[in-house]
Amino acid sequence: MQIKPILAALRHHKAGTLLIAAQIALTLAIVCNALFIIHARLVRLHQPSGIDEASLLVIGNQWAGKPGSDQMASLMAADLDTLRKVPGVANVYATNTFPLGNGGMALGVSHSPDKLKSVTTSGIYFADENALATLGLKLVEGRNFRPDEIGQLDRQGYVKPDVVIITRALAALMFPQRSAIGQPIYISAKPSIVIGIVDELRTPWVDTSFAKWADYSTLIPYRELTPIVQYIVRVQPGQLDEVMHRVRAALYAANRLRVISPKDGVRSFAQVREQAYRDDRGMAILMSGISVILLLITGAGIVGLTSFWVGQRRKQIGVRRALGATRHDILSYFLTENLLIAVGGVVLGGVLAIGLNLWLMKQFELDRLAPGYLLAGVVTLLLLGQGAVLAPALRASRVPPVEATRSI
Amino acid sequence: MESMLAYYLRLGVRSLRRNPVLTVLMVLAIGVGVAASMTTYAVFRAVSANPLPDKSAQLFAPLIDVWGPQERGNGDDIPDAFTYTDAMALMRDRKAARQTAIYPLNHTLIPADVSREPFYVTGYAAYADFFPMFETPFVYGGGWNREQDDARAAVVVISSQLNQQLFGGANSVGRSVRLDDHDYRIVGVMADWNPRPRFYDVNNSGGFNDPPDFILPFTQAVDTHTDTAGNNNCYGSAGRDPGWDGWLRSNCVWVSLWVELPDSAAVQAYRDYLQGYGAEQNRAGRFHWPPNAQLFDLTQWLQHEKVVPPETRMSLLLSLGFLLVCLVNTVGLLLAKFMRRAGEIGVRRALGASRREIWTQYLAEAAMVGVAGGVVGLLLTGVGMLSIGLVFDPEIARMTHMSVGLIGLTLLCALVATVVAAFYPTWRAAHVQPAWQLKSQ
Questions:
Q1: Which domain holds residue B394?
Q2: Which of A122, A98, A97 is nearest to A109 (CA)?
């Protein structure tokens, strides 16, 4: 197929050509950035938290009437006992927060009591001897907490544990050369000895601004004596729904002076995850919807303009056919014409896409656009162009040679 | 002239009918583009609204650098709340026309009727100035006074919703409610009042949640050792004394402060006062760095706290980009449509039609596409508003609804966009040479 005559013909349709190219360029710039954002969000949606989410549920409990510390300790012990007796419950512990919980305590971790020299920030989980088994965390080195190590933290108390369990990522960060077991770290003015290392446990926050230290979690051997407590319950296989229905009633039967929200007081981790990543899922839906419609509109626009050109050039097509051009020649003429315009469009669009990405990076702390997305966008738009032009081009190829002799 | 316009409109309808697919395509493209933009714009407008338009220029949130530059990474902000110590010092000095320290509270409410289960309520600890400063409307009673602040009175202002729940909406002033372990005498019942974003709490929350159930004196909340339900940020707290008093004396920041400054002289005076306060702390040996005070007015504060979620801005921009593509698309399709009738235009021009008449005729045709696009856009915006909850936080979704303004804006946007898009194609149409066209026939 000769390109020169096509280019010559396009010069007669400057405006239409430029408009299609501009539309392709803008669509490419938007769609490949959207694809990139969608993928980043979907990755977040499925980010493992490190815990066995499928078998876990969480109960948010608030004591009514502001009981004192001693009273709260015994209320909590009684609740843990009650929960253990609920049929289908495998294990349970009380804590301040949980992965995907989007709230909790963060402390700087240092090699010395000097807070100014903290190596990183760490998410703090209150835990007892049942925490690892309940969450399904794998201990890769060291040991679990012993029951006699579990302390109690009053309101406005100050966290200074003797021993801690940390994640593998935090251990590697603090002690890159040797095993962290037996080493002291400082999350308070007092040294805390690392006694165990768990494989993976994300901090409670899903916000990207916390991503830098999302793998650096620390389990501390405390029960927190504040009016609000979270019970993490591990259920026996296949019993999640039954247990979810039983626990609230069981706790109220034991003691009514409490609030467990009937709406979202008891949640499975599937629900917790859904809520934690709602914005991400929303963005992925919105971006996908807009991208699909955008591609449809651009495709339809190409169909519309090419149809017009075909209609306009019926006579020339007839002349070419009469002079011996095959139907295939006519078809490939229009396909090539579209390809030329589309290539122009994607070149411009590529530049726009990178520019848009640079701007988004500044505005929204996005990452740099990976070349794969640009490539995927380019291929999509070239295929879309060819697909859109196919119907009008086929119609053009069916113009009979006799058209040359007709005048309008 | 009117009859000519009617004639053009009739011509337009006929022309649009001649290529129904092309027409539908244009109308749909404009409708979808406008609907996406309007839906995301409605969300954006809701979250970026000024919660107190008539008062916002007089309300200020001060900040002081309590932790010093050493605590901050490069370019980080100073803490966005006060320590108890500093908040109380500023409250005592009363250098503003009105001022209130605030912190959020969680309580369980224990109904007097023992057969009813306790339930969860949220509210704020504040000073008497809170109500006049923020123009809180009341259905019954009112706020408390400064003497009651000083007396640490066990009084409370409750929301109309809580009043409905507890007293069936009757005047409950003088009655009492039990919040955890204390009884509070109701002095006022607020009317439905929920300025959003909740500017006075955006350093603790997203700012779009349900209205608070109650507001009670700050002094009373501190007296009863009620913890903050919001953020409590401590820095280098290794030396903190145990217990409630240790926490109050610590450098943990958890108190918000708002001041009312009626004019620019008052603003300048308060700025100087804050700077002076920092210098005084420096001299006293508490701060070891040059004083660094900031004073944000309400709208600046909302920006400082980044209240508009990035998702909202991003989706608005995405939709505008989308609308732009739809418009480029419309320009192309209109061009095709108009130029297809070059022959007809040539004949009309040769028969004496002026350029101006061609302009009018074709812009009228485009305007019809615009109006149809606007109607489709309106329907789709309605669908969009219903599905906002799928994409945005339900708290934000609840704030957006179809309004007369939005309907008008949707139609106007579609019409203006289409007419703008029609400009170039119409210009081309108007410049068709009459002789040329006739010759080629």
A1: 2-48+309-440
A2: A122
